[in-house]
Amino acid sequence: MKTILHISADFPDPLVPGKTKAVASLIEAASGFRHLVYSLNRVSWRSGLAARAFGEQHTALAYGAPPYGVRMTHHLTQIGDFILADLARRGVVPDLIHAHKLTVEGLIADRLATETGTPFITSLWGGTDRRVFEAKPGLRAAYRALARRAALLLPAAPWTADYFAAALDLDPSRFELLPITTVADTILPPVHCAKPRLMSAFAFEHWKLKGFDTLVQAIAQLSREVPEVELHIYGRGGPRALLDMTALIRKFGMAERVKIMDPLEHGTVQSVMNFYGGFVMPSRPETFGMVYVEAVLAGVPILWSRHEGVDGLFDGMNVGYRCTPNSVEDVTRGLRTLITDQARLKQDIARLQSAGAFEPLRREAIGARYRRLLAIATGERAEMAA
């Protein structure tokens, strides 16, 4: 059985159990391989490194480093030293290293690959990787060299591949699309919503990144021509976020139009979505946004951002409106489109569902694709990817 070494700052571990489950779900889907995970957790303005084993094969690392990537390569070198020593102690030589982001974990993986003679692949998470790449001009040559040495680059969405093909000066053939697995991927037939009612869902602490301020202003504009329009916001968050969001709603006089709802229980997101006219979230930035995929699978049209999130996944499909996220006017046009064209959009989504157009975005298909890519990268037999 081939051994895959994973390096990720986004893997739930005993130190930070509430991290996104995207990486964990992907690894769970890759049966037939032995997986070793080094889960990274940075602590601002501290020094040192500490480790804690968890599960059967995994290690959680806590390391001190300043924020904003100050002396980033120095601190990542320390992590690489630890992993090399730990692998030697355990007598493990991996068959493949998977860095789950290019700009941080990729630097560690590149060094480990050089030291062990092991090939490596790296994911590309558009939001984080683009931000770090643009903030670190001094490392761009290193990132380009790293990317050329990687066996595969795995962008989560087409726009990410387009961005990094140009930024890294690479041929597009070096990229293999690997969407992020969703928490829920049930196919639900569309249901007509008789009222002009839209929804969004996000962690309230991230309301700025999710474009909540733009949404409130767009609802205020749209309410002049669609007085009954409503926007329901689902999610969880602390008192500061609630105060900030409520202040915005009151500032634009939208207390009757924009409503913060009770949190959705696990497993109910898609069933609740199904009864809305559309899902709207003009994020900036957004690596992927699993909730967009969950919405389309639940039969709901979406408003998403240009050059962000899932952009490019639905090219040629009439599933909603692609907006300019910082433009209140364009987001307003998008909300209007979802309301006025609801019937046509939902008919098209139903047709696409029936044709299997969304199957590549479901967990089983993404897992099969990942297994195939791991089999190729490790030289396994082709049937391992079946």
Summarize this structure as a short list of keywords or feature phrases.
globular, 13 helices, Rossmann fold, disordered C terminus, six-stranded parallel β-sheet, alpha/beta, 2 domains
The share of residues in helices is: 25-40%
What is the name of the CATH superfamily of the largest domain? Glycogen Phosphorylase B
**What is the β-strand count?**
13
CATH arch. level architecture of the largest domain = 3-Layer(aba) Sandwich
Count of helical stretches:
13
Distance between the termini: 15 Å
Overall pLDDT: 94
Largest sheet: 7 strands, mixed
Query: Which descriptor suits the 3D outline?
Result: globular
Rg, nearest Å: 22 Å
**CATH class descriptor of the largest domain:** Alpha Beta
Low-confidence stretches: 382-386
Domain unit count: 2
> What fraction of residues sit in β-strands?
15-25%
Looking at the structure, the CATH topology of the largest domain is Rossmann fold
Encode the helix/strand succession as letters: EHEEEHEHEHHEHEHEHEHEHEEHHH
State the secondary-structure class: alpha/beta
Strands ordered across the widest β-sheet: 3-4-2-1-5-6-7
